[in-house]
Amino acid sequence: MSIDLQRVRADTIGINNRLHFNNAGAALMPTPVLEAMTGYLRREAEIGGYETAIEQAERLDGVYASVARLLGAAPDEIAIMENATIAWQMAFYALAFRPGDRILTAQAEYAANYVAFLQVAKRTGAVIEVVPNDESGALSAEALERMIDERVRLIAITWVPTNGGLVNPAAAVGKTARKHGILYLLDACQAVGQMPVDVAELGCDMLSATGRKFLRGPRGTGFLYVRRELMQRLEPPLIDHFAAKWTAPDRYELRPDARRFETWENNYAARLGLGVAIDYALSIGMSPIMARCRLLADLLRTELLRIPGVVVHDLGVERAAIVTFTVGGVDAEVVLARMSAEGINVSTSKPSSTLLDARARSLPSIVRASPHYYNSEEEVLRFVQAIARLAGSSR
Ligand SMILES: Cc1ncc(COP(=O)(O)O)c(C=O)c1O
C-alpha cells in the first residue's frame, strides 16, 4: 500500500510555510490532531475542564487503546506521560540496584538516560558498562551476549539515537534479555512513528517514547509500556493518590495497571491529540511510513554526499530518517541559521547529547535533517540545493 501523498500533504498546513526537516525534533501535526485538540480545549472553555473530561471519557480512554495498538501491547500495559524522559525515568528509577549490579547500555545512549545511570551508580554502587559496536557502528548483539553474567541487572539502550540514522538491533538485544531473564528497557523515542514497533517482537519489558516527534502528536506527550507480568514487581519511584489508593491511615494500594506510573492531573487536550496522531499514523500504515521515510532519507544522504565538503555521519547498515552531516568549515549552528533564513527547519545535535558516541568519533555539533513521509522528493532536492549553495559560498 502506498501513501496518498496529496492527501497527507493537504492535511499538513505547515508545509505551506516551511520546508520541515525537523521531524526528529517535533514533526508537523496533521490537521485532525490540531482539530481534536482545539475542539477539546474549546469544550473545556464552554462547559468546564472536569465536565469535558466526563463528557469525553470514552475518547480519552481510547487513547490507551491507540497506544497499545501502535505497540502491539494491551491498554493496561500503557501509561500516558508528559514526555519520553519522564516515562523512561519512571521505569528506570523503579528498579532497585545493589553494589556491583551491572547496567548494560549502548554507545549512542541519550544524555538524559546516561546521567540517570550515573546518578544511580553513584547512589547504589551499580556499574555502567557500554556494549561495543560492530563494524557498522551499531550495537553488537554478539558482544552483548558475551557480556552477560549473573550480575547484569538491566539492559537499557536507545533504539534510534538522537544523533543519526543508526538503528540499533533492538530485537536481537531482546532475544538475549529474554534468554537470560534480564530486564530490558528500550528507549524508542526516535523510532515510534517512523517504523513498526511490536513489543513482543522486541522482547522488551519496558519501552518509552514521545508523541511530538515522528508520531506527529503534540508537544508535552509521551508514554510508557510495561509488560504485564512485570507490573506487580515495579513500585513507581513517585506516587500520588491516582497511582495508589489511600486505603487506611497507614496504607496505600497501587493500581494494578501501568497507570500506577501516572499522576492525577493531565493535559487532556494533548492526550487526545496524541491518540488522534497515532490513529492517523496507523490508518496510513507503519510499513508504508517506514518505507517512505527511508526512501527520502536515503535520497537525502546520496545527494548530500555529492556536495564537496559535506560529510554524512550516520552509522549502521539499517538507517532511519535522521540524516546528520557537517558542511566543511561551517559551524552547525550557522548552517541551522542559514537554513532557517530560507524557510527550512533543521536542528543540530551537540556532542553532549550523545557524549560517548561523539567522543569516540570526535564529532563536533552536527546538522540533523529528519524528513518524514509527508515530505516530498522535491523538498529533498530543494534542501540539498540550499546546502550546496552554502557549502559553495564557504569555500
Ligand atoms: C533518543 C531519545 N530519547 C529520549 C528523548 C527525550 O524525549 P522527550 O523530550 O519527549 O522527553 C529524546 C529527545 O530528543 C531522544 O532523542
Write the layout of secondary structure elements.
Elements: H1 5-10, E1 19-20, H2 31-47, H3 49-55, H4 57-71, E2 78-81, H5 84-92, E3 102-106, H6 111-124, E4 127-131, H7 141-147, E5 152-158, H8 170-180, E6 183-187, H9 199-202, E7 206-210, E8 222-226, H10 228-231, E9 244-248, E10 251-254, H11 268-284, H12 286-305, E11 310-312, E12 323-327, H13 332-341, E13 344-345, E14 347-349, H14 355-360, E15 366-369, H15 377-394
Parallel strand pairs: 1-13, 3-4, 3-5, 5-6, 6-7
Antiparallel strand pairs: 2-8, 7-8, 9-10, 11-12, 12-15, 14-15
Bound molecules: pyridoxal-5'-phosphate (PLP).
Q: Portion of residues in helices?
A: 40-55%
The whole-angstrom Rg is: 21 Å
The first-level CATH class of the largest domain is given as: Alpha Beta
Could you give a short account of the major beta sheet? 7 strands, mixed
How far apart are the termini?
A: 44 Å
Q: For the largest sheet, list the strands in their spatial order.
A: 2-8-7-6-5-3-4
Based on the coordinates given, report the CATH architecture of the largest domain: 3-Layer(aba) Sandwich
Mean pLDDT: 98
Note the total helix count. Answer: 15
Gross geometry = globular
Count of folded domains: 2
Q: How much β-strand is present in the residues? A: 15-25%
Poorly predicted tracts of residues:
none
Could you tell me which ligands this complex binds, including any ions or cofactors?
pyridoxal-5'-phosphate
Q: Quick one: CATH superfamily of the largest domain?
A: Type I PLP-dependent aspartate aminotransferase-like (Major domain)
